[in-house]
Amino acid sequence: MSTTRPYSPGDRGPEPSGASGTPAQGPSGEGASSGAPAGEAAPSSGRQVRRMSFAGESGVVPLARDFTRQALYAWGWLPAATADQRAAAEDVLLVVSELVTNACLHAEGPEELWIACDNKVLRIEVSDRGSGQPAPRTPHRAGRPGGHGMFIVQRLCLDWGVIRTPGVAGKTVWAELGAPA
For residue 93, which of 51, 153, 28, 133 has the smallest C-alpha distance? Predict the structure, then answer.
């Protein structure tokens, strides 16, 4: 489903970062550091957060996948004990690849990757400087090359959307996937 809601429906409420549409300093309130995790959430909340800045980086898609893979190991998603858990981790890596690739192709490049996980949901946010609006191609043509990124995101995720902050260039595209059982 394509949406411009700042967060998915449900009882979790707005995200603590800039996801609510307010200017973001990041989930931990600190500036981003190049590739380094910026602030894990308090253990009592069960929420774990990692943030990566792409400033001055090249090869950002594999960099984003490696960063995400490290987070999945730290959070216990990997190594996967079952085929379902392995598939869930691969889905996360694919969605990260698609969102970062879209930022590269259509939005002047990504600025930041933010991922957060609790016991039920993993949320991915990719911020960029672009003004476009991501959307799955309609109609989707499976046999044609290219144009499948947002269709893949839509199919794999519980929900996804776009956050824009008034008066600020760019946007954040977010997606949420269910945690493995």
Answer: 153
How is residue 144 annotated by DSSP? S
How much is the average pLDDT of 102-123?
A: 94
Q: Is the pLDDT of residue 59 over 90?
A: yes
CA distances from 73 to 61, 70, 79, 125, 136 (A): 18, 5, 7, 19, 30
DSSP state of 42: P
Mean pLDDT, the chain, as a whole number? 79
pTM score, whole prediction? 0.75
pLDDT at 146 over 50: yes
What is the Cα–Cα distance from 33 to 29, expressed in whole angstroms?
12
What is the spatial distance between Cα 180 and Cα 88, in angstroms, rounded to a whole number? 6
Contact 153, 160 (CB under 8 A): yes
* Distance set, CA 90 to CA 65, 131, 144, 179 (Å): 10, 29, 23, 12
Q: What is the DSSP annotation of 97-131?
A: HHHHHHHHHHSS-EEEEEEEE-SSEEEEEEEES--
pLDDT of residue 180: 82
Cβ atoms within 10 A of the Cβ of 85, count?
17
> Can you tell me the distance from the alpha carbon of 21 to that of 50, in angstroms, rounded to the nearest whole number?
19
The yes-or-no verdict on residue 75 having pLDDT over 70 is yes
Amino acid of residue 123: R
